[in-house]
Design goal:
6-stranded antiparallel barrel
């Protein structure tokens, strides 16, 4: 009770007189550090709270930017794919305009997973008039022939398959040979070529039309090696297919009314 009375008395004196001003000033000077220290935890709590909020905002913004960047990258990849596909389709259209026979455009749907075969499935079948043995081209040359037909799809044996062979002739001079698949998409082998045969590296090989399977004159491959082996009756000759066997996605199915029909020279003429 006494403390309360003294406190009220001091408050009355302080409000009416200036006697306690020096005392109040000194006490304020003493307690100021304590007051500042008391505010530190609150300030730190506010700072940490603001930092956490800022971090959450930065993380959210980072996620949004990452998602946007991913979408833009996908769009760029898609545009690049469509541009490449458009280029291929334009080249295929140009090739189809140079072929006299009726053609049907087809696309690849799958590749045979068997590593010992070179076969693909295309999206045209018996309902489209496709038949077994039908020649298949891409924009650059002969790709293979149809070996199985279903109503909506067909199986194509590519010229690189080890079970495939095609009669060819050198476009430069008409020398005939048989080009067989090696199992590699980048190489064909010419068999039973005499050492004296006039075949050179760079010669273009075209279908000869013999056997009636392929029309005559379509580009097949370009000779990349000729090796005469002493003591052997036949030379070792290999060639690179002109068709892009590992890249093309769109093809031409040829409906030829007569075997041996020659396509325009612009399709197969050699570059100077």
């Amino acid at each position: 009770m006494l403390i309360v009375v003294l406190s009220m008395a001091l408050m009355w004196v302080d409000s009416h007189f200036q006697w306690l001003q020096p005392v109040r000033y000194g006490v304020g000077f003493i307690v100021a550090p304590a007051q500042q220290a008391a505010t530190v935890p609150l300030a730190m709590a506010e700072w940490f709270g603001d930092s956490a909020t800022l971090r959450r905002e930065l993380l959210r913004e980072n996620k949004q930017l990452s998602a946007r960047n991913f979408i833009l990258e996908r769009r760029a990849q898609r545009m690049a794919y469509l541009e490449a596909e458009n280029i291929e389709l334009r080249e295929l259209l140009s090739a189809s305009e140079q072929v006299d026979d009726r053609v049907l455009v087809a696309s690849i749907t799958s590749v045979d997973p068997d590593p010992f075969t070179q076969q693909i499935i295309i999206n045209k079948g018996g309902e489209d008039g496709v038949f077994i043995g039908q020649p298949v081209l891409d924009a650059y040359g002969l790709l293979g022939q149809v070996i199985d037909v279903l109503p909506l799809t067909s199986r194509v044996l590519m010229i690189a398959d080890s079970n495939h062979a095609i009669p060819v002739q050198v476009n430069r001079n008409g020398v005939r040979a048989i080009a067989t698949g090696t199992g590699s998409l980048s190489e064909l082998e010419l068999i039973y070529v005499p050492n004296t045969a006039d075949i050179k590296v760079g010669d273009m090989l075209v279908s000869s039309g013999l056997g009636g399977r392929y029309p005559r004159g379509y580009p097949v491959a370009t000779v990349n090696k000729v090796e005469n082996i002493p003591g052997k009756p036949f030379a070792s000759v290999t060639a690179t297919p002109t068709a892009q066997l590992d890249r093309s996605r769109h093809f031409l199915l040829v409906f030829s009314n007569e075997a041996g029909r020659v396509p325009p020279a612009a399709l197969w003429q050699e570059n100077p």
